[in-house]
Design goal:
This protein has helices spanning 41-50, 61-71, and strands at 17-19, 25-27, 30-34, 54-55, 78-84, 93-94, 99-100, 120-124, 130-134, 141-146, 150-152. The protein starts with 16 loop residues before the first strand and ends in a 7-residue tail after the last strand. By secondary structure, the chain is an alpha+beta fold. The model is unreliable at 5-15 and 152-159 (pLDDT under 50).
């Protein structure tokens, strides 16, 4: 181009959407899987880790609403989530990251640490998806979350 010529630059923007493996459901920047099996909280944590995730973290009211909708399609009503107060009684954190709760949906009177042995977070759909502290050794269904997912550059997947 000569002096005075115009240089035109074109920027191509590619939309990126998160897609999830079969059996997982996308919401925002995470994929979620509702287990069919029952495990203790520790075993549920291991199962989620085997699939590249962790027990689900509910960090906002919007995520709580999503979880309510997700669980409308299943038959059971109690699910392990990734919260615990194992390290310091009464200080609830999201495992394994150690992040303190900024949002909660505790049922009235919870957490109560009944019999001094309730240190794991349980979501109960029969109680309007509210949270309970529960004995970690009980076998319950669980919800895994994976915030890695599979990114796709297909603009048709962006909604």
């Amino acid at each position: 181009m000569g002096k005075g010529g115009i240089l035109l630059l074109a920027f191509v923007h590619t939309a990126v959407a998160l897609t999830c493996p079969n059996g997982w459901t996308v919401n925002q920047n995470s994929c979620y899987h509702v287990s069919r099996d029952r495990e203790s909280w520790v075993e549920a944590t291991r199962m989620c880790e085997l699939h590249g995730g962790y027990l689900a973290h509910i960090e906002t009211a919007e995520e709580q609403t999503f979880m309510k909708q997700l669980l409308q399609r299943v038959n059971d009503h109690q699910y392990w989530l990734g919260g615990s107060d194992w390290t310091i009684e009464g200080k609830w954190i999201w495992e394994p990251r150690g992040v303190a709760f900024n949002f909660t949906s505790w049922s009235h009177g919870e957490p109560d640490n009944r019999h001094n042995e309730q240190h794991c977070l349980l979501l109960d759909t029969h109680s309007h998806n509210q949270w309970f502290d529960h004995d970690c050794n009980d076998a319950r269904h669980y919800i895994c979350e994976n915030s890695e997912g599979v990114e796709s550059t297909d603009p048709d997947l962006v909604g």
